[in-house]
Write a structure and sequence with these properties.
Largest sheet: 9 strands, mixed
Structural class: alpha/beta
Radius of gyration: 31 Å
Distance between the termini: 87 Å
Order of helices and strands: HHHHEHEEHEEHEEEHHHEHH
Keywords: Membrane, Transmembrane, Transmembrane helix
Protein name: Lysine ketoglutarate reductase trans-splicing protein
InterPro entries: DUF707
Pfam family, one: DUF707
Low-confidence stretches: 1-12, 39-67, 358-379
Helix content: 25-40%
Shape: elongated
Number of domains: 2
Bound molecules: 2-acetamido-2-deoxy-beta-D-glucopyranose
Length: about 375
């Protein structure tokens, strides 16, 4: 009942009273502010949940995962905080983090794991001891079991530094276990699809983010003169973001660009038949490799993955469009001559389909598709 009292006093008393109210308000605000800035830096990060809260969460959400996650979030927040407090002592932990991936903005810093790998983990023991090796490269083959001998030979050209991934288009996977390496390979089985279908769906850039280089290969390649470690050395040395091994020329339609040259390590430009190249820095004279044995750097793949349309089947036209993903393309796309392969043209699902299409549409198909702007669609 203060109101009647104040109203009843003289104006001098009233202003005196007013001063006092303002003064205590100011003191209050200052104290609050001091509390505010000291509390979060000192304490919030060291706060432990009362065990009752933990067990409550456990009960609600079947436990251990939630608790581990929360603990992780809090420890990360704590270290984040400690690091920051040195430079910027009054930053308050953000709940809304705009740098988080879309859809995960509300997660606290430190809890977000936006990328992963294809490493196989154990079901027991310390997670930190799961991995004896962490391969830095990935090789994928799109395979049918009838090609097993060829794939076995190819896989042996890739060291333990490679994660091996097989896309099975014939539904046969367990048979491959006759090979020792099959047990550490990643097998994906979906019947009757082509390699770009698998690549789009199972090689998302965030999934394969751990790998420096990604080989996306057909199954019908002869690898007698190829060694993957040596290949990667050359690719690094020459700064190739998108590359392929030189192709031993065969009877089929072959671009000049991808033909192996005997006298050098790599080449990035070539000459084609007269009139084929409007610009010597553009495909098919440069900035160009084929798609049967393509090798991408991590960054290049992040771009190319986005360019692969969901209905892309055979990949026609993709070869001409790869250059959109690297700059300058005529320097970062090239062919490794001293590690080379043979295109064996063993009839497989893909090559049979290709032959059918070629018979149907005539030989110049690949070129025609591209000229018609079909960088993203099959013919
Ligand atoms: C703290 O910051 C330093 C350099 O800014 C960094 O090297 C270190 O990893 C950070 N610590 C943690 C726990 O994040
Ligand atoms: C695997 O990679 C490491 C690091 O680049 C290299 O030292 C080692 O020789 C590679 N292993 C093989 C079998 O080439």
């Amino acid at each position: 009942m203060a109101k009647p009292g104040i109203l009843g006093r003289s104006s001098a008393q009233r202003s005196n009273e007013g001063m006092r109210i303002i003064f205590s308000a100011v003191i209050g605000v200052m104290l609050g502010y001091l509390f505010g800035i000291s509390f979060p830096t000192v304490n919030i990060t060291k706060l432990h949940f009362p065990s009752s809260i933990i067990s409550y969460i456990e009960d609600r959400n079947s436990g251990i995962t939630t608790q581990t996650l929360l603990n992780h979030a809090w420890t990360s927040a704590a270290t984040h905080k400690k690091n920051n407090s040195a430079s910027n002592s009054d930053e308050i932990p953000k709940i809304y983090v705009p740098t988080n991936p879309k859809g995960a903005e509300r997660l606290p810093p430190g809890i977000v794991v936006s990328e992963t790998d294809l490493y196989l983990r154990r079901l027991w023991g310390e997670p930190s001891e799961d991995l004896t090796t962490k391969p830095r490269y990935l090789v994928t083959f799109t395979v049918g079991y009838s090609q097993k001998a060829n794939i076995d030979a190819a896989v042996k050209k890739f060291s333990d530094n490679f994660t091996i991934m097989l896309f099975h288009y014939d539904g046969r996977t367990t048979e491959w276990d006759e090979f020792e390496w099959s047990k550490r390979a990643v097998h994906v089985s979906v019947t009757k699809q082509t390699k770009w279908w698998y690549a789009k769906r199972f090689l998302h850039p965030d999934i394969v983010a751990r790998y420096d280089y990604i080989f996306i290969w057909d199954e019908d390649l002869g690898v007698e003169h190829f060694n993957a470690e040596a290949y990667i050395k050359l690719v690094r040395k020459h700064g190739l973001e998108i590359s392929q091994p030189g192709l031993e020329p065969d009877k089929g339609l072959t671009w000049q660009m991808t033909k192996r040259r005997g006298d050098q390590e790599v080449h990035k430009v070539t000459e084609e038949r007269p009139g084929w190249c409007s610009d010597p820095h553009l495909p098919p004279c440069a900035a160009f490799v084929e798609i049967m044995a393509t090798v991408f750097s991590r960054d290049a793949w992040r771009c190319v993955w986005h360019m692969i349309q969901n209905d892309l089947v055979h990949g026609w036209g993709l070869d001409f469009a790869l250059r959109k993903c690297v700059e300058p393309a005529h320097e970062k796309i090239g062919v490794v001559d001293s590690q080379w392969i043979v295109h064996q043209v063993i009839p497989s699902l893909v090559t049979r389909a290709r032959q059918r299409m070629e018979k149907h549409h005539g030989k110049g198909l690949e070129h025609a598709v591209v000229k018609n702007g079909g960088c993203s669609k099959q013919g």
